Amino acid sequence: MTADALIALLPIMVVAGAAIVVMLAIAVRRNYRLTVILTLLGLVTALATLPLAAERAPLAATELMRIDRYALFFIGLVLATGVAVTLLCYDYFAKREEQKEEIYILLLTTLLGGAVLAASSHFASFFLGLETLSVSLFAMIAYPIKERLPLEAGIKYMTLSGAASAFLLFGMALIYAEVGVLSFAELGRLSATADFQPSVLIGIVMIIVGLGFKLSLVPFHLWTPDVYQGAPAPVTALLSTVSKSAIFALLLRYFVVSGSYSYESLSAVLTFIAVASILVGNLLALLQDNVKRILAYSSIAHLGYVVVALITGRVLGSAFAVEAVAFYLVAYVVSTLGAFGVVAVLSVGGDEAETLAAYQGLFWRNPGLASIFTASLLSLAGIPLTVGFVGKFYVFSSGVNADLWLLVWTVVIGSGVGLYYYLRIVLAMMKSADGVATAAVPAAPAPLVGCLTLTVLVALLLWLGVYPGAFMEMLQSLSKTLS
Amino acid sequence: MLDALWLVPTLPLAGFLLLSLTAGKLPERAVPWIGAGSVGTAALLAAIIGIAFWNQPPESQFFRQTLWIWMQVDGFQPPVALYLDALSLIMAFVVTGVGFLIHMYSAGYMAGDPGYSRFFAYMNLFVFAMLVLVLADNLVLLYLGWEGVGLCSYLLIGFWYEKPENGFAARKAFVVTRVGDTAMAIGLFLLFTQLGTLDIQSAMQRAAAQWSAGSPLATAAAFLLLGGAVGKSAQLPLQTWLPDAMAGPTPVSALIHAATMVTAGVYLIARTHVLFGLAPEAQWLVAVVGAITLLMSGLTALTQTDIKRVLAYSTISQIGYMFLALGVGAWSAAIFHLMTHAFFKALLFLAAGAVILSLHHEQNIFNMGGLWRRLPIAFWTFLIGAAALVALPLTSGYYSKHDILLAAYGAGPSGSWLWAAGVVGAFLTAVYTSRLILIVFFGPARAHHAVEEKLSLSMTVPLIVLAVLAVIGGLLEMPLQPVLPVSREHESGLLIGLITSLAPFAGIVVAILFYGTKRFSLEAMLRNSAGFSLYRFLLNGFCMDWLYDKVLVQPYLRLAASNKQDVVDKPYQAIVWISRSVHRLLTPTQSGKLRWYAASIAFGAAVVIAIGMFT
What we know:
A: mainly alpha; B: mainly alpha; two-stranded antiparallel sheet
């Protein structure tokens, strides 16, 4: 292990260190504000070490991790998301639990798992990162332990996650049994020359099953709405952004590096999953009355759109797929954080603001939050001038360029159906507030930290929607580094 | 000085923006200063620019000011540019000058109306749009102004929107002119695609170079533009909207539906006279449309009972004269009549407005009578305007109308017929105008309310200024030679000139015999069943509304009713139905049961592995 490798791993190590520091600080003295400040400090420090690491990239830091600009980009995305979620958690948990400081340890370990995933180039780090991420999430989901729904959601997620991990491990074992290596790059080198047994293909499909569960792709999606609904709103925001983007970054790296694009039948598998996710996700959301469940179904559909971009990499080359996937994930993360952030901010005072009725007339009661929510929803729907539009444009253009018309038409239909349920929420907010029990959403003053975070997010959402050029150039340059 | 041209349309636009953005929050005292002030300053500026233009005309006889390029797409780069020559200068004078006087009058007439600020905002927007129309350098800008004045006309006819019939009249005006506008838009597209330029001047030059006289393309383009012109200028067969447009406030009728907008068609044909010169059939049709329209509306005006409707039919008839002049190639005479008509018809409307206001919004002439002593200012100014309308010698209307009729007489084989129609029209004009004056201002007083003339200074001054212009406007004939070709000089003989001049006097005598001395009894004529039918026929404007209702509106409504279930909606409803059905099919999968979720993962894995293995 050289000094360069240590420096390259700094972002990951800083996050791990921050988790330990926060834990020790809590052990010495419980102070909510201090805990949050330490967490933020750790995350900002980790973000600040990214340029240092970038100077050393690309570099294989041990056999397990490969620090290249692709990895650093997704580590940055994970950590930035972590900052936003921390800020959203601050108000949300301030008045809730008796022992609320530990959520930040769990948050940091979740981010640690995500960061490891983004950089992992080996089945071992892959599994370790994934389990670090997932186990932390079990606890975070069930954090309000005295309430029924979070507990139920936590248990469901844990049990099913275990099942999915079993598929994942089985898949890895099948591949290892046939090929005899665990590193992605070795795997790619060997599969380019040798002809393997079909059990390798079954192994890859089983890995897709395991990851498909975590990404809540159809037909492994059934847990999504229950868990999203049961988890506290900021945790849902974390679950729907960090875990999705880090795992997808890993999946894409695995596909590109291990040479899985050469399996033609994998395209059929992914096409089935993408089409099913887009259609089922959007159609399930159609008449849903629970905002958190609507957003859960919508995330199923969105991950389906990203899979479309993944599939086209086979035809268009990995560089374009990386660019499209990375942009779409950023767009999805920003918009989703905005949407769940509004839910979190509105849930500060007590009960979760999750029924559609709770949002009725929000435009007249709190125009600022309603506008932020509207902007996020329109971005999720892919309306021009928002970042979501540019992301969807990437998906469309990659589908059209690759001549995958089945997928393109599915995306078109999905987007059309999607507009319906996003606008239903907007419509509910526009309706007059008369006759709505104002107790549905307590008129507590909107928390400052949360609102500032949301304002920054919406500014980002519009900026990337109006001037995506600079960001796209950055993605283009980093997309060539993954191979 | 000419460089300030862009300010002329900008000032009213600024007035509109100021008035509309403050949304009626301004104190009522400030509103007319902004509304009328912006147009007044524009008028002053136009006058200064006009003097500079005449003193030192540019060598090319026109002045072009390019403000910016609207957009640049593959060779299509319409500039936003203004074009000033003698023709557009006269139009700008009329629009700003008469416009300012009417704005000033409105300050008194509309005082106390809840929509005071809104009224001036619309009026300013109208003046802006009309200036864009007459100063436009290219077809795109011209069309913008053309549609802009149409919009303002709609907004102002329906200004008192609380009454449903006003909204109906506004819609009718909008829809009927839209028929013409569509024809015109197609015509403009035709010019652009065939001539490859949007610039009006170069389009005319290219038309003259590319097309021979009577070529099908030139004829088609001229017919299409004529369609737009008859719509906007309320000529046969699209004249039915103008009488109903009188639902708007009287200053609106004076400005839009007498002095300026309705003459846009005349301006359009004069502006594209080269094209009409290449299409003799179309030009001949212009003359025929004018002649028939002036006769029909003259006859209709004889029977009307609403003071503003009489004036509306009179406007249609006078624009008919302008079309007649255009059709026989008397371009300058047409524009001259346009100008004098703007003076005296605006005067007549404003004087009528004074009468209406004094009688608490009474418009039926048979509820008036004997007003000349009680409303002296309204009476004398109305009388002066009427004299110019009837074309009594020495008034402005005499010179312009005389020019038109003599030019018609000298225009080829059908010229004498056109002349005869014009002379009969002049006779009819004299009859209905005299009838109006005799019923409204003389005879027994029939008013239901107390009558008192309460005209503010802002209303009196425009009346007097316009009265002066209506008399001396004949001296203001401006040279249009470089822009419009000189009409042929012709000898018509003393007899023709004499008949032309004397026709109005005959009309006045007839009117006095019927309505003044009651030598002939109208009642006797109406007792006769044929006479009564004729009266009803004329009262309803040749029953054109009835005819259009039967031929166009009713079949359309029947067609719409037959598709009440809307076949087109069916596929969309099917989409909704399918989506909801699938949603209901899928919802039960979200049972919340952990064992079912786990089983579904296993099942899904089996399906996915099967797909992976067997493709």
